[in-house]
Specification:
Layout: H1 3-8, E1 10-12, E2 43-49, H2 56-70, E3 74-80, H3 83-96, E4 102-105, H4 108-116, H5 124-127, E5 143-144, E6 147-148, E7 151-157, E8 159-163, H6 164-169, H7 179-191, H8 205-230, H9 236-250, H10 269-274, E9 280-283, H11 287-294, E10 302-305, E11 320-329, H12 335-344, H13 347-357, H14 373-384, E12 387-390, H15 392-395, H16 398-412, H17 418-431
Parallel strand pairs: 1-12, 2-3, 2-4, 11-12
Antiparallel strand pairs: 4-11, 5-6, 7-11, 8-9, 8-10
Helix pairs in contact: 2-13, 8-9, 8-16, 9-17, 16-17
Length: about 425
């Protein structure tokens, strides 16, 4: 990653500007779960993750066993959950004040709420040896008041994954770079008898990506931050984002039954793309792996392009919407939990994660292990990005993030207007 790219990049949309509202959690205190001994007298470290697909589903236990081989007095107990089930369980655990020893986090408002409730360990010292080794904005979503509360394991961005063969059949010679061109591409795909877009309407967060990116392109990342600061998303730019999305919805671009489709299940969004039954999906850097796991995968026909610009918009076409993945440690967890994270994110281990698990590198030392040509395109997009907006359902407090997901889902289903979406989001923002 170039020094010039790092010097000009901004990381926007974290929760501190919105107000986290953790008063209801403040009395919960730390967790007393985990950290016990097993029948062999080993310290048990419970590790919650969301690696449900190959190859990471295999690599994660391998990394745990590698650590155990070096630390025979420790047992890493993996608990693997699907994305939405994980979020639901973690919401309940946060409310109860009993978090796992190590747990997955996307940072932003959700992590800040847990920090304010006194549930998260400060791991600044553990991260210090890596401070100059992280890629770009990798640590930023997990840093509050100068302290680190999670270990980044990946940084990536969202963009369009597309089927080159379908584009060729529809007469689309190059990926669209403007929203107008994108709508034209959708029309051409429909005319060719191809479902333009795969979407998991049931899970809501994939649909949020469209509204979020349109808001970024129209309002700009600075405009997104100003709206968060003011707790007001009713401005023209955000209404226009809904109007542009409504234009897309009017074309009926999604696969049949999209409103009931999940993301990674058989017949869901990833499988629809992976089996060649749709031409595009808007998704993060994990898309190729999930497509191949849920479906057959389309191999060399898979391509990637960044979200188009919108005419008259204030946003920079290089700005990226996305985020990273990290692991946090509960307050009071055994020292072995922190030791494991230091092992897991050593340069040697990150190279393994990039090479074997197809993760985007979190450490500069691992960039050379990135071989997938499409992931290299994502990496290049991150390198040239001038602004970065964290996933809205993680950047903002949980209730606000959920409202954005719900309201955009209602727009996609034809149950809410662009104005109603903006008002609903603002109403919840002001209540935080």
């Amino acid at each position: 990653m170039s020094a010039s790219a790092l010097s000009r990049r901004r990381f926007l949309g974290t929760a501190s500007a919105v107000g986290v509202g953790a008063a209801a959690l403040a009395a919960c205190g730390g967790s007393d779960s985990g950290g016990g001994k097993d029948s062999k007298g080993r310290t048990v470290v419970e590790w919650w993750n969301i690696q449900t697909t190959e190859p990471s589903k295999t690599v994660w236990p391998e990394r745990a066993k590698a650590f155990e081989a070096e630390h025979p007095d420790v047992h890493i107990k993996l608990v693997t959950l699907e994305n939405d089930a994980y979020k639901s369980k973690m919401t309940a655990l946060t409310s109860s004040g009993k978090l796992p020893d190590i747990y997955h986090t996307w940072g932003g408002g959700v992590l800040k709420q847990q920090i304010d409730a006194g549930l998260v360990e400060d791991i600044t010292e553990a991260c210090k040896p890596l401070s100059n080794k992280f890629v770009g904005v990798a640590p930023d979503a997990y840093k509050f008041d100068g302290k680190m509360y999670a270990m980044p394991i990946e940084v990536g961005g969202v963009g369009f994954w597309y089927n080159k063969a379908h584009f060729k059949k529809a007469g689309i010679t190059s990926p669209p770079t403007t929203w107008s061109d994108y709508l034209d591409a959708v029309k051409k795909l429909k005319s060719a008898g191809i479902a333009p877009i795969a979407l998991a309407g049931k899970e809501k967060w994939p649909g949020m990506y469209y509204w979020a990116y349109l808001a970024m392109r129209i309002a700009g990342v600075d405009g997104m931050q100003k709206a968060a600061d003011a707790k007001d998303f009713t401005g023209d730019d955000f209404v226009k984002a809904g109007e542009r999305l409504k234009e897309l919805v009017a074309l009926k671009p999604f696969q049949k039954g999209f409103l009931g489709a999940a993301y990674s299940t058989p017949g869901g969004q990833a499988a629809t793309m992976g089996n060649g039954k749709a031409a595009m999906e808007l998704m993060g850097q994990w898309a190729p792996v999930t497509q191949a796991d849920a479906g057959k995968g389309i191999g060399k026909d898979l391509g990637f392009f960044t979200f188009p610009t919108v005419a008259g918009g204030k946003g920079d076409g290089y700005d990226i919407f996305g985020g990273g993945n990290a692991y946090a440690v509960r307050k009071g967890a055994p020292q072995a939990a922190v030791d494991f994270l230091k092992f897991f994110m050593s340069s040697e281990s990150d190279k393994i994660l990039v090479k074997k698990a197809n993760l985007m590198p979190a450490l500069k030392d691992a960039i050379g292990s990135l071989t997938d040509p499409n992931l290299k395109l994502v990496s290049a997009a991150l390198d040239r990005a001038t602004g970065f907006q964290l996933y809205l359902d993680q950047a903002y407090p949980p209730a606000l993030g959920q409202e954005i997901n719900d309201s955009v889902a209602a727009l996609l289903a034809g149950r809410k207007s662009p104005e109603q979406v903006a008002r609903s989001i603002t109403q919840v923002a002001k209540s935080q």
